[in-house]
Amino acid sequence: MEKRTRRVKTRHIILAVMCLMYFISYIDRVNIAVAGPIIRQEMGLTSGQLGLVFSAFAYPYAVMQIVGGWLADKYGPKRVLTILSLIWGVATLATGFAGSVAMLVGLRFLLGIGEGGAFPTATRAFTYWMPVAERGFAQGITHSFARLGGAVTPPLVLAVVAMGGWRDAFLLLGVASLAWTVLYMCCFTNSPEQHKRITPEETAEIGYRKGDCDRAKHAATPWRKLIHRMWLVTVVDFCYGWLLWVYLTWLPSYLKESRGFDLKQLALFTALPLLAGVIGDTLGGVVSDKLYKATGRLRLARCSVLVVGMGGSLAFLLPMLSATDPIAAVMFLSASFFFLEITNPVLWTLPLDIAGKYAGTAGGMMNTGFGVAGMISPVAFGFLIESTGSYDVPFTISACLLGVGIVAALFIDTSKTVEADEDRERHVLMGGGEPAFAHAGQGVGLQRHPLRRPLRWKK
């Protein structure tokens, strides 16, 4: 018995494998930005051509959010994520052989297809592997690894470039991505009942019921219900994504042009906010899960973290605009990004809470907000800088969008789930009227996690 207690749980092994995926995929995503100046010099690219290479990733990435999530719901996350990781691994590897602008654009487009569906598919993978009380932590730690990947990419890629050239960097990263695919195929199954290592005790901890996975494959996707329940989450994700894309694209330029940092200082002070985000991602998920365990109120646990995160980000972004000391401005930016990233794990947990077996499609809907923000935010930010000659106006607009996100987060209700809608319709069809639980405190109810308090229905 003592031996079993110390045994690493299967879901934690799977979580570690998924953390590695987030880490590698984010390096594959941002490596082109680090190698960009060297590629431009070697191939003689113009600024417009390099910009085209950069942007080729964003459009298929946005489109593949819902497509990838839906495919994961219908065919299972193991098959879908295996194919997607093969696509982005091959695209990364082949970039090392690119010899023209057209080939670079095509491979970045292919990378966007592979990575676009990856995060919604990973979210769907957690549906039958993570208990409700651990979902926030799972989403937080995986996205922390994504931010860590973004933070280590510059020194990692530049070190390889210094030793062998930019092509070697892509070759090595492509091999790493393909190696992860093999690891994933060996370790992951769509549900606990398919895994040879799982124990009955851990299956009970997860709350998985035999046959849930197979039943989900045959369920028709309730598009209208998903849109109805997820559109507010998508709005919040757009507001979050707007400022995140600013950090990922314009932060070095802002620190250099507006705050006067030289190149040596730039490497350090660009990394500080991103490292603060690593901590914020993990902390946001942990705090949300702790709140849920302490109160049994899922809506409070999720929405309060959203409001505090976006509110804290706004509170530190505003004084950054008026800060006269460059170091103080970096500290405000770091604090703002820390609070911004607190919201990220909760945003990715909400599709699991609200959509359940449709979490892949719902996660894709949610992250479409981030994808659209990625297409608009960097361009709009640059246009406003060019037209006003200052960074103050675009940062002020970003602050206003944080305010919109806070208001929208207040109206998200995790008790209004897609499964609740389906149960309600099923009872109406079977009984010809409203379900009994709509009018009574007890009777036929929804499946609840053991930690949840019973629902108190209005009479």
UniProtKB/TrEMBL annotation:
What PROSITE patterns does this protein map onto?
Answer: MFS
The residue ranges crossing the membrane are 12-32, 52-71, 83-111, 169-188, 230-248, 268-288, 300-321, 327-350, 362-385, 391-412
A single GO molecular function term of this UniProt record:
transmembrane transporter activity
Q: What is the lineage of its organism?
A: Bacteria, Pseudomonadati, Pseudomonadota, Betaproteobacteria, Burkholderiales
Subcellular localization = Cell membrane
Organism, scientific name: Caballeronia telluris
Q: Does the keyword Flavoprotein apply?
A: no
Asked whether the keyword Transmembrane is assigned, the reply is: yes
Query: What SUPFAM superfamilies has UniProt attached to this entry?
Result: MFS general substrate transporter
Q: Which GO terms describe its cellular component?
A: plasma membrane
User: Which keywords, in A-to-Z order, does the entry hold?
Assistant: Cell membrane, Membrane, Transmembrane, Transmembrane helix
This protein is called: Major facilitator transporter
Q: Which intervals hold domain Major facilitator superfamily (MFS) profile?
A: 14-417
Q: How does it sit in the membrane?
A: Multi-pass membrane protein
Pfam families registered for this protein in UniProt = MFS_1
